[in-house]
Amino acid sequence: MAAVAAANVGDAVAYGADELTRRALDGIRAASGAAAALLVFNGTAANVLGISLLLRPYEGVVCADSSHLNTDECGAAERVLGCKLLPVPAADGKLTPEAVATRLAGRGDEHHVQARVVQLAQLTEVGTCYSLAELKAIREYCREHDLLVYLDGARIANAAAHLGCTLADLAACADILSFGGTKNGALGVEAVLVMTEDLAAPAAYLRKQQMQLSSKMRFLAAQMDALLTDDLWLRNARHANAMAARLATGVAGVPGVRLAYPADGNGVFAELSADRARALQADWTFHVWSAGGDGRCVVRWMTAFDTTAADVDALVAAVAAAS
């Protein structure tokens, strides 16, 4: 917020032709190794723009059935791009080469949508993290089968913090990816990172057509520049991850509660009774991820850059006290 306020001094050229935007884009390109970077307002827009750079009208996107693209973007890719999503069951949120292979039937047949893009999320929608080895295996498989990789990086900072790797290490496993700011302390900004010049050529036109070109770009750039300065993006993510680990350890020791997925990043997915979840929701705001017919459910608890140890301990105590 201080960076945005500082950008609100004096005049600046519109549509990204200002020094602050140039600095922010230079910074994100240097950190990722991308050939081009574009700033947009939110994660759904980043996903739609990124995928639009990879698809022709008759091509489809292989994705995990739990992916944000498939479940939580109100059909944006289908509505805006007219593309078909080809979801694959993924119990832990992760795709594998074998899972991708199940959606390649019909390639070369004019009666079928042609699978062209494999969409991954890092972190996944259930908070799990691909290892670099897993990402590289998918990347190699896609190269062998003439497929392109789009990486939804809404929480890529948390993945880098978990793996102890660089942004460039992760970006090297994709053709295009997003770099999330909104879920890592920013007011609202994402970067679409295009790894090669040939894919970047139409990017500016598609961003404009998709209504994501900000006339006052410096206010988006100010947020991105602040995140990149002294690796604030990574420090924020490390803190959020540490708070999630503290929460996961705390609630795992409560009778009647178990972790539904590994807490690799800043999300804790816990299975508990539906009655206990309802009792907790009287004082705590969180999402019930799924519910079964046995009176139990899975809830999602998220930590952030500003979550404190006291916040976490209070929730653990509330979980233990609830029935």
Total DSSP E strands: 11
Please give the CATH architecture of the largest domain.
3-Layer(aba) Sandwich
Question: Low-confidence segments, ≥5 residues, pLDDT <50?
Answer: none
Structural category: alpha/beta
Spell out the helices and strands N to C: HHEHEHHEHEHEHHEEHHHHEEHEEH
Gross morphology: globular
Helices and strands, with pairings:
Layout: H1 2-7, H2 19-32, E1 36-40, H3 43-52, E2 59-64, H4 68-71, H5 76-81, E3 84-88, H6 97-101, E4 114-121, H7 132-144, E5 148-152, H8 156-163, H9 167-171, E6 176-180, E7 190-194, H10 197-200, H11 203-209, H12 218-228, H13 232-252, E8 258-259, E9 267-273, H14 274-280, E10 287-291, E11 296-302, H15 309-321
Parallel strand pairs: 2-3, 2-4, 4-5, 5-6
Antiparallel strand pairs: 1-7, 6-7, 8-9, 9-11, 10-11
Helix pairs in contact: 2-12, 8-13, 13-15
How would you portray this structure in words?
- The protein has 323 residues and is of the alpha/beta class.
- The protein folds into two domains: 2-233, Type I PLP-dependent aspartate aminotransferase-like (Major domain) (Aspartate Aminotransferase, domain 2), CATH 3.40.640; 236-321, Aspartate Aminotransferase, domain 1, CATH 3.90.1150.
- It has 15 helices and eleven strands.
- It has helices at 2-7, 19-32, 43-52, 68-71, 76-81, 97-101, 132-144, 156-163, 167-171, 197-200, 203-209, 218-228, 232-252, 274-280, 309-321; strands spanning 36-40, 59-64, 84-88, 114-121, 148-152, 176-180, 190-194, 258-259, 267-273, 287-291, 296-302.
- Helix 7 links the parallel strand 4 (114-121) and strand 5 (148-152).
- The longest helix is centred in the last third of the chain and has 21 residues, at 232-252.
